[in-house]
C-alpha cells in the first residue's frame, strides 16, 4: 500500500487505531511461546472448563466458565494445580474479560509478561491496577483435508484477536468494532470449496478468519476491508501465527496482500481463482444525513435494502478468472406476494454467470430487527432500541418486504462464455446439514459438470452409499403410497419417487446403462392405449438426471 493513511495497518501507529501492534516480532514470538506453553489451545481450554462450561461459553454464556475457573485451594499435585491455575488466569483474562493481577499474569506468561502485553496493545491497567483485556484473544484450530492443503500441515492451531464482544463488555459496541469468530464466519469456512488456487481474494476480511484457511490451499491471498482497524487486527493475527500459517514474518507480502477500500475497488483490474466473502450484508435502515461512522462497519454495508449483496452478485464475476468461483453469505428481501428467489434471479439477468443459491433461513421483519439490535447490544439503551426497532419496520414497509432470507451463494465464471446460457439453481434447505458442507458442494459441482459433458442415457449408475429408501403404505394396502429416498450425508435431501423411478433406482447396480434400464421399464409398465412411450422415456431420463445432480445416483466406477 502506498497511501500514508494505511501505514497503521502495518503496526506502525497502533495508538491511532486502538488495535494490537504487529511490528514487534520479538514480543509476538514470546507471546506465541507463552500461549503454547500454558496450554491455551482449543483442546486445552475445553479440558480446563469441562464439557458443560465449554458448551455454555460457545453460546456466549460466561457464568459456568467463571465458576469453573475461580481460584481454589490446592487439592492435588502441586505442578498440575499450578498449570491449571496459570491457564485459568489466561482464560479469565481474555475469554471471560475478568481483570487479573499483574503478578498472576506475569507468572502465567513469563516471557511476554504484563509489560509486553501492554506494549502490544492487548491489555491495559484499570483504575485499581489490575490487568484488563483490551481485546479478545482466543485459540482457534481446525483439521483440514490434506488433499486440499498445499502446506502439508494437515491443520492449524492459531490464536485470533478481535474486539471484545457484546457479552464481554458493557454498553453498545463501537461502530468500528472488529468482529471475532462468529457463526457467520464459521459457516463460510465450512461452506467454502477447498481446492488449490494461485490467487485467492478474501473480500471483507474482518479479523482474518477466511484468509487463514485460504492460505492452506492458495499460493497468494489478497485480503481487503473498508476498516483500517480490521486490517490491523488481521495483520497482527497473521504475524502472531506466522509459523503455523507457513509465513515469513520478514516477507509477509509474498503470500498475503492487505488492501484498504470498499468492495472490489482495491482489486480493480485483477482476477482471482477463488473469492470468498462474508460481506456486511445486514439490511439496516438508512437515515438522511447518516455518516459511515454511524454504521457498524462489520455488518452494515451502507446501501439501502439488500443492494450490497445484489451489487456483489453482479460484479464479482468481473474479478474471477475463467473457471474461477466465488462463495459468499448474504441476505435478500422477499416482497409480499413474491417467491424468495425472484430478487436473486433478477441480479443474474444477462450476466452469463453460473449460480447456486441455497436459502437456509427466512424470518419476519420483526425477528430480523430483534436479531441485529441484540447483536450490537442496542437493547441496553431503551430509547435507542425503541427508535431503531421502529426504523427497521418502517424501512422494510417502505419496500413492501414481508420476509428476509439468509443463505449461501456460489458463483462461477464459465471457462467459455459462448457455451450458452449459464445454469442457475435455487434451493431452500432449512434443516440441519452435514458440516463441513464444502466437500459435498464440490462434489455436487463435479456431478453437474459430469452431466454437461456426458450422454446420460449411455451411463451406468449406482446408488450412493449414504442413500436409503423408505416405503409407506396404509394398513392392508397392496402397494406403498409413498416411496422416499433419503441422503444420510451432505445436504441430506429427501426425494419423493414415482413407481417407475423407484424401479429404476432399485436396478442401479452399474450393470446396465440408463437407456437399457429405461427401455426395460417402458416394456414392463407400458402397452396400454394411453401409454406415451416417448413422454415416459423423456420424463424418466430427466428424473434420473436430477437424482445424479443431487447425489442419490453416481456414475459407476
Protein traits:
35% helix, alpha/beta, Rossmann fold, elongated, 8-stranded mixed sheet, 3 domains, 3-stranded antiparallel sheet, disordered N terminus, Outer Surface Protein A, domain 3, 557 residues
Account of the protein in words:
The model is unreliable at 1-15 and 145-153 (pLDDT under 50). This protein folds into 3 domains: 21-134, no CATH class; 179-451, Vaccinia Virus protein VP39 (Rossmann fold); 453-555, Outer Surface Protein A, domain 3. It has an 8-stranded mixed β-sheet with strand order 7-6-5-8-9-11-10-12, sandwiched between helices. The protein has a 3-stranded antiparallel β-sheet with strand order 17-13-18. The chain has a 3-stranded antiparallel β-sheet with strand order 14-15-16, with no helix packed on it. The chain is an alpha/beta fold. Strand 6 (218-225), helix 11 (228-240) and strand 7 form a beta-alpha-beta unit. It has 19 helices and 18 strands. Helix 6 (78-95) crosses helix 7 (102-108), helix 16 (438-453) runs antiparallel to helix 19 and helix 18 (514-525) packs across helix 19 (533-550).
Please describe the topology of this protein:
Elements: H1 14-17, H2 25-37, H3 42-49, H4 51-58, H5 63-68, H6 78-95, H7 102-108, H8 113-120, E1 123-125, E2 131-133, E3 136-143, E4 155-162, H9 183-191, E5 197-203, H10 209-214, E6 218-225, H11 228-240, E7 256-260, E8 272-277, H12 307-315, E9 320-335, H13 342-347, E10 354-363, H14 365-375, H15 382-398, E11 401-412, E12 424-428, H16 438-453, E13 460-463, E14 467-472, E15 482-487, E16 494-496, H17 499-506, E17 509-513, H18 514-525, H19 533-550, E18 553-555
Parallel strand pairs: 5-6, 5-8, 6-7, 8-9, 10-12
Antiparallel strand pairs: 1-2, 3-4, 9-11, 10-11, 13-17, 13-18, 14-15, 15-16
Helix pairs in contact: 3-4, 6-7, 14-15, 16-19, 18-19
Amino acid at each position: 500500500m502506498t497511501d500514508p493513511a494505511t501505514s497503521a495497518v502495518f503496526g506502525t501507529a497502533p495508538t491511532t487505531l486502538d488495535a494490537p501492534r504487529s511490528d514487534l516480532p520479538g514480543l509476538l514470538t514470546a507471546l506465541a511461546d507463552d500461549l503454547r506453553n500454558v496450554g491455551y489451545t482449543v483442546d486445552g481450554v475445553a479440558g480446563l472448563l469441562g464439557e458443560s462450561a465449554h458448551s455454555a461459553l460457545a453460546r456466549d454464556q460466561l457464568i459456568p466458565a467463571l465458576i469453573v475457573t475461580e481460584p481454589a485451594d490446592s487439592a492435588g499435585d502441586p505442578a498440575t494445580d499450578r498449570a491449571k491455575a496459570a491457564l485459568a488466569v489466561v482464560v479469565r483474562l481474555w475469554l471471560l474479560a475478568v481483570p487479573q493481577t499483574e503478578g498472576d499474569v506475569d507468572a502465567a506468561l513469563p516471557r511476554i509478561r504484563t509489560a509486553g502485553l501492554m506494549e502490544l496493545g492487548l491489555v491495559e491497567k484499570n483504575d485499581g491496577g489490575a490487568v484488563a483485556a483490551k481485546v479478545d484473544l482466543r485459540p482457534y484450530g481446525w483439521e483440514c483435508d490434506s488433499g486440499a492443503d498445499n502446506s502439508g500441515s494437515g491443520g492449524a492451531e492459531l490464536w485470533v484477536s478481535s474486539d471484545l464482544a457484546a457479552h464481554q463488555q458493557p454498553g453498545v459496541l463501537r461502530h468500528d468494532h472488529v468482529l471475532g469468530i462468529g457463526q457467520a464466519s464459521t459457516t463460510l469456512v465450512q461452506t467454502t470449496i477447498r481446492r488449490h488456487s494461485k490467487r485467492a481474494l478474501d473480500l471483507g476480511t474482518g479479523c482474518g478468519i477466511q484468509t487463514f484457511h485460504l492460505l492452506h490451499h492458495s499460493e497468494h491471498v489478497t485480503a481487503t476491508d473498508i476498516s483500517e482497524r480490521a486490517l490491523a487486527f488481521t495483520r497482527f493475527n497473521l504475524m502472531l501465527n506466522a509459523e503455523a500459517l507457513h509465513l515469513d514474518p520478514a516477507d509477509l507480502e509474498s503470500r498475503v496482500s492487505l488492501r484498504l477500500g470498499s468492495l472490489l475497488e482495491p482489486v480493480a483490474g485483477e482476477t482471482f481463482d477463488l473469492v470468498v466473502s462474508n460481506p456486511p450484508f445486514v439490511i439496516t435502515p438508512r437515515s438522511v444525513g447518516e455518516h459511515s461512522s454511524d454504521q457498524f462497519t462489520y455488518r452494515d454495508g451502507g446501501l439501502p435494502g439488500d443492494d450490497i449483496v445484489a451489487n456483489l452478485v453482479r460484479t464479482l464475476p468481473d474479478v474471477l478468472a475463467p473457471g474461477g468461483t466465488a462463495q459468499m453469505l448474504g441476505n435478500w428481501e422477499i416482497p409480499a406476494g413474491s417467491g424468495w428467489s425472484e430478487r436473486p434471479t433478477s441480479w443474474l439477468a444477462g450476466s452469463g454467470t453460473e449460480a447456486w443459491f441455497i436459502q437456509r433461513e427466512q424470518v419476519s421483519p420483526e425477528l430480523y430487527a430483534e436479531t441485529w439490535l441484540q447483536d450490537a447490544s442496542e437493547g441496553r439503551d431503551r430509547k435507542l432500541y425503541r427508535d431503531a426497532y421502529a426504523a427497521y419496520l418502517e424501512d422494510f414497509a417502505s419496500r413492501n418486504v414481508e420476509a428476509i432470507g439468509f443463505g449461501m451463494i456460489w458463483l462461477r465464471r464459465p471457462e467459455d462464455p459462448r457455451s450458452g446460457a449459464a445454469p442457475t439453481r435455487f434451493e431452500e434447505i432449512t434443516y440441519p446439514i452435514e458440516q463441513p458442507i464444502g466437500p459435498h458442494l464440490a462434489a455436487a459441482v463435479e456431478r453437474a459438470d459430469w452431466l454437461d459433458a456426458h450422454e446420460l442415457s449411455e451411463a451406468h449408475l449406482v446408488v450412493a452409499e449414504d442413500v436409503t429408501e423408505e416405503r409407506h403404505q396404509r394398513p392392508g394396502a397392496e402397494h406403498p403410497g409413498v416411496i422416499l429416498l433419503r441422503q444420510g450425508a451432505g445436504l441430506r435431501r429427501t426425494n419423493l419417487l414415482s413407481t417407475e423411478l423407484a424401479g429404476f433406482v432399485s436396478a442401479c447396480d452399474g450393470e446396465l446403462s440408463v437407456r437399457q434400464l429405461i427401455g426395460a421399464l417402458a416394456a414392463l409398465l407400458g402397452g396400454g392405449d394411453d401409454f406415451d412411450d416417448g413422454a415416459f422415456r423423456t420424463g424418466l431420463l430427466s428424473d434420473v438426471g436430477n437424482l445424479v445432480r443431487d447425489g442419490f445416483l453416481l456414475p459407476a466406477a
